[in-house]
Amino acid sequence: MKQEIEMEFKNLLTQEEFNRLKHFFFIRDDQFVYQENHYFDTPEFSLKGQGAALRIRVKNDTYTLTLKQTIEQGLLETHEALTKEKAQSILNNPAMMEGEMKSLLKDMGIAAEQLQHFGTLATHRAQVPYEGGMLVLDHSCYLQTEDYELEFEVNDWEQGKNSFEKLLASFRIPYRPSANKIKRLYAKKYGVEDQS
């Protein structure tokens, strides 16, 4: 089990803007890594109601269970590495979750038995170092939808915000607030616009 604070800025892109950034930063197609995010919540969306999200990410034959919780600046992420077999058993039956992650959820008033796997979002992701942080280009596919997104992961909120705004301005990319991936999946699946 590992915890870290994630600070990032996000912006939705058009396909043309995505391609411009890709070419400017010399990102080749073979530098994009495929990953799948499998999301969980209760039927009453108890995690969403607490500004939290739970997922299993599959990437390069690794399986990671992650709980994201909103904090003042950014997100607190708790990660647990899983075997392929354990990940599959949780996907088939979230009640199979155990250990510290199960305890963390219980502290939030959520029993593993209440959880269900409600959707998967696949992403092709490339990242390059930029201005003391990490610039991420994402092309995501879910529920017959495709979208493009720019993320900037930083360690310093103010400096990162300044660098991100300058980058958007220099490419004449309008600021388009980007809900996180789980919220975009919710919005598409349930027909609700939740861009908060």
Automatic annotation (TrEMBL):
SMART domains: CYTH (SM01118). It holds the Pfam family CYTH. This is CYTH domain-containing protein. Residues 4-192 form the CYTH domain. It comes from the Bacteria. It comes from Anoxybacteroides rupiense.
